[in-house]
Amino acid sequence: MYNLSELYYPITANPKGAGEILPCKALRPYIRCFWGEPEKQLNAPSAPSLGGEIIIPDSCMDIIWEWDEQTGESGGIFCGINDTPFEAGQAHDDTGKVRFAIRFHFWAVHLFADDHLREVLNIHTGVDHYFGSFRSELGDKLQGTRTVAERIALVEAYLLRQLEKTRHSNNGMLNAVYAIVKSKGVISAAALEGNSGFSSRQLERLFREYIGISPKKAADLVRFQNVWLDIYRTPSQDRNIQDVVYSYGYSHQSHLNNNFKKFAGRTPLEALAYARN
Fold it and tell me: Which parts of the chain sit beneath pLDDT 50?
């Protein structure tokens, strides 16, 4: 697979606090990052979470595996692609709990899943619904690890094994994804047809099967993420919102603000204030 991650770098609502770890080079075309808590000492006190974390659409999908070092209980969820912001991590005491997660690029999840992804928009469901071998081949083994490095080694070995036996992707669909990513989400339906060799109807079917959303929604999410990355990375003294309006095909600043707020739950300036806290 062409390494689309060289063209596209989605970020969270609070990038500096995300605790992300990049995968090995062989997995970067498929995996955006790993994330989770750092090492804990067994029975060490853990401060309770004091509030929720804002989750914005990053166009990725996650497997989140959690286990209790004291009771041995474990389980995981699969978070499908989302198109609305929400709050996660309400106040709770997670003493003894350890969490480790795999964040997939949206174009690559189907290479690891057992079935189509037509129902994954905004879902949170058990890992086994889409990854039947996850618990037996990886989840149960994570409980025996003590360091993040050990977890990553296990996870990367599992993912590479899965790739060896994966079903093939669809080249036309991936060509359309490449066109979306390369254009930063600013692309017409006609251009997608030309890049993929498929009609709009065929692309709609392929995207819903392999990704779970329409080509238009994929482009909207990619555009939002590129806008957010530009705004977040540009120093305030160099930031010109009109440049963003022009670069990403918005008709005016209010159009940009309204579209951004649909995905982030706040205006660009409010999003920056949250990310800088």
Answer: 41-50, 91
